Amino acid sequence: MEIAGGSVASLDQYVVFRLGQESYGIAIEYLQEIIRVPHVVKVPLTPPYMWGLANLRGNILPSIKPAEFKAGSLR
To answer: At a CB cut-off of 8 Å and minimum separation 6, what does 62 contact?
Structure first.
């Protein structure tokens, strides 16, 4: 690939997202897909970090609050 008089073997692509005040990026090659957040159903008596449950193509998935997603905080 030629770019402004030089050649580049490859250009890396990243998906960048924010959690709270911090920005993170992950190389696109590690992702399978990007989807919109599905409807989340709140479940009574769950821990404070749980948003609830979501149905993604027939699979029931737990949904947690991103601000709580820190090492050691999900106890």
So the answer is: 50, 53
Q: What is the CA radius of gyration of the chain?
A: 18
- The first and second tokens of residue 12, run together, are 């890396």
Cα 27 to Cα 25: distance, rounded to the nearest angstrom: 7
* 3-state secondary structure at position 7: strand
pLDDT per residue as tens digits for the range 15-48? 998 877 889 999 999 999 998 889 999 999 998 8
Threshold 0.70, pTM exceeds: no
Sign for the CA dihedral angle at 58, 60, 66, 71 comes to negative
